[in-house]
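tool=predict chain=A
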Amino acid sequence: MEETLSSIFMRTKGKPINFNGKTVVAIMEIEITKPRTVFSIRRLGATNGRVQGLALKAVSGQIVVDGSGDGYPEIILWSDTSPDAVEIEVFSKFGSTLKIWNVWKSTFVMNAWVGNTGIHVCEPDGKMILECSDGVGDVDFSDYVVVLEER
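tool=predict ok
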C-alpha cells in the first residue's frame, strides 16, 4: 500500500512535497502585509461524491466575505452552500498570514488533513489555481478546484 499524502506531510513536518512531479502542500500560506487585502475566489469545480470546502483562516486578522460587514478569523466556503464566486477582504493591523486548506464532509463530520488530502498550487498569469485532493481514496486534484486572485 502506498503512503498517503497526510502521512508524508506528518513525516516532513508539513513541508511542501513532490508528488508525481507536482509540488503539493497541506496548507497554503499567504503573508498579508497591508491593513486591507482583497481576494476574489472562484470555484471551477467540485466532486459530486462529497461536499467539498475551502477553509480560510486569518492569523492575527479578520476576514469579511462580500462586504458583509462582520469579520471572522476563520471561514469555510462549502461547495453546496457558498456562491461560485466570492470576494473576501482580509483586515490586519500588524500583518497577518492567510492560511488556506481543503476540507470535506462525510455524513455530518468535517474532515481535513487525513488520507490523501493536499493542494497543488498552479500560478498561471498571476492567478493561483488551487487543485485540492480530499482524503478519500486515491489522490485526485480535481476534487475541489478554485481560482484565487489578489485584487
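The mean pLDDT is 93. The radius of gyration is 15 Å.
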